[in-house]
Amino acid sequence: MKKIYFLYIVSLFLLFSCKEDDGTVIESSISGSTVNFDINAVPYSKLSTYSFFSGDLKDLTPVAKVIPYEPASSLFTDYALKKRFIWMPEGTKAKYEEDGKTLDFPVGTTLIKNFYYNTLQPNNTTKIIETRLMIRKSTGWIFAEYIWNDAQTEATLLTGEDFESGSTQSITFKKQNGDVISTDYRIPSEDNCFACHRLDGKAIPIGTKPQNLNNIYNYSTTNIKNQLQKLVDEGYLASYPATINSTVDYHDTSKPVDIRLRSYLDANCSHCHQQNARCDYRALRLQFNQTTNLTNLGVCLTAAEPVSSTISKIVAPGNYNKSVMHYRLQSTDGSNMMPLLGRTVVHDEGLLLVQEWISSLTQTCN
Q1: What is the predicted pLDDT for the residue at 233?
Q2: What domain of life (predicted)?
Q3: Quick one: which of 19, 43, 143, 266 has the fewest CB in 10 Å?
């Protein structure tokens, strides 16, 4: 009997393993996830309950089938660093619909986004501030906001009035260029989350569009591949087209300034400035696939609410100091700034990109 059981185990190993031509054994990735997930019980009160991560929770080491991802261009959030992951129930797949439309995820999909700093002063310490989950239920997407304790051992779900009102945490951190910034980091309310994630009156993810994931990600020193292909390989995506009109990393100065600018605005502004979204009553249409049209970018377009008689065009070609877009991006006044949510400080690098782009324009406005 023992011999038969041993032969059965060996046969399973051979069945679910394969070899490279040189004889190296490759472990199959079919093993199931150890994630703890009950669609009727989530969101859990503690982040650790999901078992998304192994070892010390603060290390954010994903278990099998919790897949990291990173959009080509990301949303600016007061210079917070982010670690993002996708988990999906076994046997389910997302579907491609359009380059600029979020993947069609199945019920149970959980998007995990951790916000942290690694240069908190005075000792350049690392601290995770919050973890945001979007969970796909049968009735649609829900938000779950988790706040980390000072010991970095657990994150607790915000509920009731705490989630209704949001909150702030006072932080001081150092930028890559050495500048030290102090601010009250804003932890969003549920309404804040919905304001940005709303389309056609429903909550949707923002960053998980094929155009943002059609790029190379370093999963490990031996696992570097296209992010969409990774999702296919993991059984999380049915397929995707060979050609995708894709965004770029707006920090990459080797790319054309207009492509970088369009990628930046798509990541930071288009979730509101598109049809059937929060700010669709404005003329701007800032999705990446809409901004080949300069009018959609606001070039030579008179703002509905001019700043002054000399700052009236959303984008005044060749003169960023007379452009409403630039004015709002450099403001931290809640009544003037753009975006309205998600930041309390100026994104200096993004502002410089806008300046470079506006300065490159040569159109003459009527």
Answers
A1: 97
A2: Bacteria
A3: 19
